[in-house]
Amino acid sequence: MTPRQRIFDIAHGNIWDVEQNFHESFAQGLLEIWFPNIRLLDGCDQGNRIHLEGDALLHTGLVFAHAAFEKNLTESNRFVLLVAAAVHDICKPQTRRIREDKVTFYGHAEMAAPLCPSFAKNVGMDAIEAERLEWVVLRHMQAHDLPKFGAVKRLRFYQTSHFPVLAALQAADARGVWKNQDGSLHMEVLADFFAQDYEKLSAAVI
Predict the structure, then answer these.
(1) Taking a C-beta distance cutoff of 8 angstroms, is the pair 122, 69 a contact?
(2) What are phi and psi of 98, to 5 degrees?
(3) How many domains does one find in the chain?
(4) What are residue 28's phi and psi, to 5 degrees?
(5) pLDDT reading at 183 higher than 80
(6) What CATH number did the domain enclosing 15 receive?
(7) Residue 41 belongs to what domain range?
(8) How far is CA 157 from the centre of its chain?
C-alpha cells in the first residue's frame, strides 16, 4: 500500500474511527516515518486559553478527523488537506513560549512550511500537490484572520487555486478545538464568509 493509499485508509470511517486511526498510526511510528518530529506534538501543552481539548497531538488528531469529512474537494486536494492537517502544527513544540502567562506559538507556520517539500516527497505527492501543501501550511494562521484583511488581499487569496484547501483546513482547525460551555466554537468556521465575501468582491470588480 502506498503512503497515499494508507493516508486515505487512516481517514476512513466515522469521525471517532478516523481520530482513533490517526493515534494508532502515531503510536505505531507510521506518521513519524512520513513526518519526522511529529512525535514532539505528544505532550506539547497548548495552555487552556483556547485549546481546551489537550496537547498539540490531540488537537492534530481532531483536525485530521474533521478534515477527513471534507467532501467538496478533488481527490488530489483532499490528499493535500489530510497531510496539511497532520503537519500544520508540527513546529509548535519548537516555537512554544510563555508570554504574560499565555502559551504562544509565534512563527510555527513559518517554521513548518520549509519542511513541507520533504513531507510531500515522503508521501508521494506530485509537484503541484507539494507546492499546494507548503502554501497552505504557511498561511493556515492567516486564514483565521482573513476577514480582517483588506479587500484586495482577500480577493487574491480567493483567486489562487490553492485556496479551497486552505479554506477546508481553516474549518477543520476551528472544529478541532473544544467548544465553549455554551456550545460555540473558540475559532469561527469561515467557509460561509469566504464564499459570500468572494462573490461580493468578484461582483464589485466586474
Answers:
(1) no
(2) -115, 120
(3) 1
(4) -80, -10
(5) no
(6) 1.10.3210
(7) 3-205
(8) 17
Q: What is the distance between the alpha carbons of residues 104 and 183, in angstroms, rounded to a whole number?
A: 25
pTM (2 d.p.): 0.94
Q: For residues 158 and 115, is the Cβ–Cβ distance under 8 A? A: no
Cross-strand pairs, 97: 104
pLDDT tens for each residue of 50-103: 667 779 999 999 999 999 999 899 999 999 999 999 999 999 999 999 988 888
**Helix or strand run (H / E) with residue 102:** strand 102-104
Specify whether the CB–CB gap between 49 and 103 falls below 8 A: yes
Q: Where are the alpha helices (DSSP H) in 38-126?
A: 56-67, 75-87, 92-95, 108-112, 116-122
User: What are the Cα distances from residue 13, in Å, to 34, 58, 178?
Assistant: 22, 18, 21
Confidence of residue 192 (pLDDT cuts 50, 70, 90): very high
